Amino acid sequence: MKKNVLIVVLWFSAAAAHGAPASELWEIWDSHDDASTATISHDAWQEVLDEYVMPGEDGINLVAYAKLAEGPGHDLLKRYIQETTAIDPRGFSKDEQFAYWVNLYNAVTIDVVLQYPKKKSILRMGKRLFAIGPWDDEVITVAGEAVTLNDIEHRILRPIWQDHRIHFAVNCASIGCPNLSKTAYRADNLETMLNEAERDYLNHDRGVEIVSDRKVRLSSIFKWYREDFADSEEALLRDYVAVHRDDVKALLATKKPGVDYEYDWSLNRQE
Length: 271
What we know:
The structure is a single chain. By secondary structure, this protein is of the alpha+beta class. It has a domain at 21-189. Helices cover 44% and strands 11% of the residues. It contains eleven helices and seven strands. The protein has a three-stranded mixed beta sheet with strand order 5-6-7. A two-stranded antiparallel ribbon has the order 1-2. A hairpin with a 5-residue loop joins strand 1 (53-55) and strand 2. It is globular and about 55 Å long.
């Protein structure tokens, strides 16, 4: 019995130290048509967001997973995923592709959660024994290629767009994560949506919190993906966080605070 408990403790310790895969280009997806004016419909996804994503008074958007699983929304979600994965995004503009991959990532993540109704964290979900999350599971097929969630984030979005705001757009179904937006991403709203997602997260305690004049607590996102934000922890605070937070800027003018990192892997579920 003690051995089994130790295994579980070690498993959660490994999960808490969740590391970030490297940004490595999957070259077949690095193709687009800037002359294309064709658009991809995300109307079905917008319907799901409208009905099942609930903004909380604490600034955290929650998902009504139970209601979604039992109602017509699940069929709508599956239809959106099926129709979207049937499209080869490479024939579209780069902005259209960005919206395609972000919306698909978020929709598939919700679909994964619905497959594990008794789990309280996405870290406990996954097809492989002792897997830490579902991110390396082949969950969809696009243009004949089996694709994982990690593929979308780390082999497509990060290396092709090289935009740190990607981390505020994709959602990992956890309280500590930036909000799952109630608005679907589209080519014509990207800048507004990305800037808003970044601003909201950086101004919420789960993103940045001044604990004392000696300590600033940051989301572990800034630890896992620091290379996407700054060259060092000092530069992260000075040249990124302080640019968006006047209180951090004021603190840095008089102090050199330490940094702690924290992340809440609890499911972003509406009870």
